[in-house]
Amino acid sequence: MLPALPALRDLLPRGGLARGSVLAVPEFGLLCLALAAGASAAGAWCGIAGVPEAGLAAAVGTGLDAKRTLLVPDPGSAWPQVVASLLDGCELVLLRPPATVPVQVRRRLEAVLRRAGGVLLVAGDWPGAQVRLRVITQRWTGLGDGHGRVRACCAEVTADGRGEAALTRTRWLWLPAEDGGVTLADPVDIPMPGTPVTRTSPRLRAASAG
To answer: Where in the chain are all domains bearing CATH 3.40.50.300?
Structure first.
């Protein structure tokens, strides 16, 4: 197992990231970075491929170690070979693949993954992923009546999958909290409908989507 941040452990089978497994999140965002951060903070090398907008500043805020992170913003048409090389050298690889991944390519990368004993975290669709996580509700805090600034986002995150992950789990998280980290949210602190909610740009919303 690769370790996960404490706030994410209840969402994952056995509280961590199983080596040789694929985890999928519908789109790139802070949830993806948070899933990688626990392993990175524990000393694992991580690779990020196909995500040119990935910001290390946001990643470092979740606990990801920039010195142990390899970035390949645009792997191009040879992306399967690039990802295979990253899987051979990194314990966790975050990949945003093209819209459609051929079955043969997917199976070949899964074989590399099992041999190398790492974790593949996919920002997108990956049929057969052992664990799937997604953000189903977001409530931003920080703006009042047209003034103030974004301080934090309270997100409802759900996880399901195959085998040990078949049971659906749901948790409320600060994603991010005011200090930029990821922590469990107490239901009494969750902004309810009718409280001020920020109106953010698509890029800022995407930074914490999953």
So the answer is: 2-123
Contact 36, 121 (CB under 8 A): yes
Length of the chain: 210
Closest CA to 209 of 143, 152, 137: 137
At 64, phi and psi to the nearest 5? -70, 135
Tokens of 141: 């805090």
Instruction: Look at strands 69-72 and 46-49 and give their pairing.
Output: parallel
| Peptide linkage before 26 cis (omega within 30 of 0) | no
2 contacts 16 by C-beta, under 8 angstroms: yes
Superfamily grouping for domain 2-123? P-loop containing nucleotide triphosphate hydrolases (3.40.50.300)
Measured CA to CA, the distance from residue 59 to residue 127 in angstroms comes to 26
Distance between terminal CA atoms of the chain? 22
Distance in angstroms (rounded) separating the CA atoms of residues 210 and 208: 7
Reported as a single tens digit per residue, the pLDDT across 32-90 is 999 999 999 999 999 999 999 886 776 677 778 989 999 999 999 999 999 999 999 99
Record the tokens describing residue 119, joined without a space.
């974790």
